[in-house]
Design brief:
Elements (H helix, E strand, L loop, with lengths): L1 E8 L26 E8 L12 E5 L12 E3 L6 E2 L6 H5 L2 H14 L7 E5 L4 H12 L4 E6 L4 H7 L3 E4 L5 H8 L5 E6 L5 H8 E9 L18 E4 L9 H20 L8 E4 L4 H9 L6 E5 L2 E2 L2 E2 L1
Parallel strand pairs: 6-7, 6-9, 7-8, 9-10, 10-11, 12-13
Antiparallel strand pairs: 1-2, 1-4, 1-13, 2-3, 3-5, 14-15
Length: 308
């Protein structure tokens, strides 16, 4: 479908376009990034679909498609569209798909968080981690442990973390043992990578489960993974586009479920900086240098159908 873009949030993956030619076939200079989009349907395909021209939509795009959201118009597979939550400002909605929908798939689809009472989230002040804390809180998880820098401890607690470990000044494993009285947690989520996946694995109790978002999981590197009966899930959210009907459905289902929580006020959006399309390039450079706090959302304004 042809979509007129109203807002598009920036994600770290957008800053890595210079490396995409290794994974995207026939990549040319006209390749446009921008995955998380709020927009309006301008045309519909000649196929059976319930979407109509003028419908407001929210979606997470396909990183392998060159018609991304950092433009006045983009193209999007209608089979992964979700309806724009009607109680949510468009900049807030646009800030959520990549991180929020990934958090939903991790906790609900993979870990079945509603069945557990304890979780450790490595990187709780980041995009996925901040949403994961709130999802765990929504489902009534009693013990929500996360790690972050000292300056973000208050933020993580406001989101719903019951215990916050300062990874810069505290030993994560020792703190996890103290908090859980040596029992470990039911489930864990690694949003950081590197040594954090080991913290997550070591934090698990017998037959615990974890989701690895960053690295390719290597159970041989986890302490007694087989003897402890550990289960490790992996998610690459956008990979759903390359895996047929089931893959596309996983994206849309996560979006619809997360949007419901967002619309009902159960999810707090991150700090949002609104910029214009002309400012996007500089914002991406800053993000590549990891100098960005919260979410940056590109806002496109229209007057009488024309771009302002």
């Amino acid at each position: 479908m042809l979509i007129r873009v109203h807002a598009c949030s920036l994600n770290p993956i957008d800053t890595k376009i210079v490396h995409w030619n290794k994974i995207v076939d026939d990549m040319e200079d006209d390749f446009i990034v921008g995955l998380d989009v709020v927009g309006e349907i301008m045309s519909t395909p000649e196929k059976n679909t319930s979407w109509k021209i003028g419908d407001k939509v929210l979606f997470h795009g396909n990183m392998f498609d060159k018609h991304g959201g950092l433009a006045e118009y983009c193209l999007q597979d209608f089979r992964t569209l979700t309806a724009l939550p009607n109680n949510v400002p468009i900049e807030v909605a646009a800030s959520t798909p990549c991180a929020g929908w990934t958090a939903w798939r991790s906790l609900v689809d993979k870990l079945q968080i509603q069945k557990h009472n304890s979780i450790f989230i490595a990187g709780g002040s980041g995009g996925v981690g901040s949403f994961a804390i709130q999802i765990a809180k929504y489902f009534g998880v009693e013990t929500i442990i996360t790690s972050c820098s000292q300056r973000n401890i208050g933020y993580a607690k406001r989101l719903g973390a019951t215990h916050v470990i300062d990874y810069e000044n505290q030993n994560i494993i020792n703190q996890l043992r103290i908090i859980t009285k040596g029992n470990g947690v039911n489930v864990a989520l690694d949003c950081v990578g590197g040594g954090s996946e080991l913290y997550c694995a070591n934090a698990l109790q017998f037959e615990g489960q974890m989701v690895e978002l960053v690295e390719t999981a290597n159970l041989k590197s986890y302490h007694q993974a087989k003897a402890r009966g550990l289960t490790v899930h992996q998610i690459s959210f956008g990979a759903g586009y390359k895996n047929g009907v089931q893959g596309r459905q996983s994206i849309q289902d996560a979006g619809n479920a997360f949007n419901k929580l967002l619309n009902e006020g159960h999810i707090q959006a991150p700090q949002i900086q609104k910029i214009t399309l002309e400012q996007a390039a500089d914002a991406l450079k800053e993000m590549r240098g990891q100098r960005t706090v919260g979410k940056v959302v590109v806002m496109l304004k229209y007057l009488n159908g024309s771009l302002m």
